[in-house]
Amino acid sequence: MESMSARILDAPHRTPAWRLSSLWPSMQLTIGGGAVLVAVAIWFGSSALIDTTRFPTPHDVYSAGLQILITGYAGGTLLMHTIQSMKLALLGFLCGVGCGLPLGLVMGYSRKAEALLNPIFFFIKPIPPLAWIPLAIVWFGLGDSAKIFVIWFSAFVPILINTYTGVQSVDQTLLSAARVYGADRGILVREVIVPSALPMIFGGLRISLQASWMALVAAELVGAFYGLGRVLMIAAQDIYPGMIVIAMACVALAGMAMTKALGLLERVALPWLRPVQ
Amino acid sequence: MSSIQFEQVTRVFERRSGSYKALEPVSLTIVDQEFVAIVGPSGCGKTTLLRMAAGLDFPTSGRVFVGNKPIQGPGPDRAVVFQQFALFPWKTVCENIAFGLRCRRVPKKQLQQLVAKFVRLMGLEDHEDSYPHQLSGGMQQRVAIARAYAVEPGVLLMDEPFGALDAQTRAEMQEELISIRRVQPRTVLFITHSVEEAAFLSDRVVVMTGRPGRIREVVDIASIRAAEEWNHRPIEEVMSLESFGRIRSHLWRLLRHTKSVEQPTLPDTGLMALRAAS
Amino acid sequence: MTSASTARPLPASVTYLGLATVGLLAFFGVWFLASISGLAPKRVLPSPSDVAVTLYQISVHPFAGYTLGQHLASSLERFLAGFALAAAAGIPTGLLMGWYAPFRYAISPFFDSLRFVAPLAWVPFAALWFGTGFGGPILVIFSGAFAPCVINSFRGARLVDEHLIEAARTLGAGHFRLMGQVLLPGAMPSIIAGLRISAGLAWQSLIGAELIVVSSGVGYLIVQGQGDVAPAVVMAGMTAIGFVGIAIDSILLMIQRGIVRRWQGAAQ
Question: What does the alpha-carbon distance between residue B211 and residue C56 come to, in Å, rounded to a whole number?
């Protein structure tokens, strides 16, 4: 969908050729598809020239894909690794959200709670979640607990911040209206404050999910027995670029799938939201 | 008994830049079922007065009474209609209207009847399950008014309710308000910038001046209104009446800070006619 | 008064400060006690004072090859290089995508699919292509910092007030003048906001990369600390990481405020 500014720029002042774009909607597919085809063609065409220790040819990727799908690699099939990774990430994500969301509600609602807890987060917030990995390993060893801890932390901070910001930015007029019509504290929280904060909360959930997934990949790269991160690491050690590409693609797809699922959940939970571009 | 009484009310706001006196002592009594409009420039304190009647704000000195009882806080006995509609975006039209009733734990059957009644009254039958963002401004304000009437308040406080609407919708809403009042009379405090709107709707118009706010004059229209049957005539007819024009000019002059030259507050003809009739 | 709600004005700042101090003291106090009392062995949870002392020590004595300052310099070097690269590539890309539809159609498929790859997933290729050299972390940082630059520049380009554009054109502005004096200033606030987000992600990605593919730098420092089971070093390193992160963000925030004030004035 074109914005006005783009259309005005595209208007026949100096560049009449671009006018076509508004008359021919499928130009988007043509140009996009064309670019992709050209890139793929170049990739195929230069197969002979590629240094296969550094970059995969299409054939490499294909055979790597087959291998991991059917026979398995680095301890399991692609499905197994993906499920393992997603399981851990979601577990950490849910734990983080389970702690962060209620705490955020409390901090948003009560200025006293916010005053008490905010300074602590001020110190903890700037430390990137990934920087906790070494400490988590010292505390929990190399098993799954360390990973869950880091993922938990990655999910915890964004949802906390977004939740209490969401609660604090409830429209004052709506609060006044609710009080005028006789809302007691329970109704005020359940039917006014929480629904009003939900869009921001979902924004926080999205960020937490992405952070969790990133933390999972990082944690598995550092040390794991199975999972997509381990596949990546083993493929690097084996100098197997085809497999690296497969694993990266899987990371991307899984991340995309989870984000889309969250988006679907949001649309179901918030039917009243005006669609934003 | 739902009267509103402001007794020597002042309001001083403490800002970082110093204290700001928004209202000089204001005293005003609004009688049961009377419709009073307050007009005045921005910053004259009219919204502050309304908020104090609503219980959303409290006077620095002086007292505010509703039905002879001092105000402790907001409540559904003084329903408010806001300029920005203040509908809950996550609730449907019906759920919004029902909100006040649910807060009072009105039983389900009775609640549904009341909601249906006011949906009909405000002409919202086709939009019962719509969300506010799907409705036009006029429709949304209708929902807000339905919500206010649904709790059957003694007092209706309206803060520039039609300010955000276009001129045509505004005129429609004004006429609707008059016809609703015939069926459901209430004490109404109505804030507006528009002199015409104030004159068309109210029994008395309070003209305020600003910074700090105080009452300049109170113009009584009730008798003319009754004598010429304004409530039963379309808006364009009323606005072409000579008496209306005179009242409007008078109000404008008051707002301009120049004293009205020789006329008394009531056009002679109306007053004489009334006196003659009694 | 009526029930407490977020509609309340701020409680006295004194109360707020008081509670904040209590909170902080409680946090450090519990930490201190937990480590002193042996609730958790010293090996695992050093006390706050231990961390502070260690912080000083690694500033003057080398750990894992360099002092803290040298590690930080190494990290910052990589950060700046990767960040600058991402901005230099990302901002023009985003702007062009916003202004010229064909360009957007061509680039979108690649951008949309690559952007979902977590930056750290590039570590294997970084290792393959650069070993432990300078390029490895740069690649990872770039992949993290690139997307926000593009997206925010894109948004900035699209959101320029069409009235401004129309006004400029009725006054006879040519194509390039239009771009330089109307579109660019209009997009600037969004671009700067994107740079802040990008810097945050860049710093994070850097640390992640430094956990794996380097032999110097503050991420390397804490991994070595973990290897030596020296949690005090790890925590000291984490503190340093946090401080630098705040510093970077604060600098960008100041730039953001300055530019928004100046450019928004010009654009309006």
Answer: 60
Q: Which domains does chain B show, CATH number per domain?
A: 4-77+153-277 (3.40.50.300)
User: pLDDT, tens digit, for every residue of C208-248?
Assistant: 888 888 888 888 888 888 888 888 888 888 989 988 988 99
Fold of A68-269: MetI-like fold (1.10.3720)
What integer is the mean pLDDT of B252-265? 60
- Identify all chain C residues contacting B73, using CB atoms and an 8 Å cutoff: 1-2
Spatial separation of the C-alpha atoms in residues C37 and C143, rounded to whole Å: 45
Q: pLDDT (tens digit, 9 = 90+) per residue, C58-70?
A: 888 888 888 888 8
Chain B contact for C12, CB < 8 A? no
**Average pLDDT over chain B, rounded to an integer:** 86
CA angle centred on B10, ends B4 and B15, rounded to 5°: 130
Chain A hits for B147, Cβ within 8 Å: 181
The confidence score (pLDDT) of residue C17 equals 82
CB B27 within 8 Å of CB B9: yes
Looking at the structure, do residues C138 and C221 belong to the same domain, yes or no?
yes
A182 — contact with chain B (CB < 8 Å)?
yes
Chains with 3+ CB–CB pairs under 8 A to C are: A, B
Residue whose pair of structure tokens reads 């195929």 in the numeric block: A44
DSSP A275: P
Output the CA–CA distances (angstroms, integers) from residue B164 to B49, B83, B88, in the order listed: 20, 7, 17
What is the rounded distance in angstroms from the CA atom of residue C267 to the CA atom of residue B208? 40
CA atoms within 13 A on the CB side of B224: 24
User: What are the domain boundaries of chain A?
Assistant: 4-49, 68-269
| C-alpha–C-alpha distance, residues A235 and B18, integer Å | 69
Determine how many CB atoms are found less than 10 A away from the CB of residue C61: 9
CB pairs under 8 A between A and C: 223
For A128, the closest chain C residue by CA position comes to: C204
Distance CA A229, CA A225 (A): 9
Decide if A130 and C207 are in contact by the 8 Å CB cutoff: yes
**Residue C20 lies in domain:** 10-42
Helix (H) or strand (E) holding B191: strand B187-192
Stated pTM of the model: 0.80
CA distance A196 to chain B (A): 8
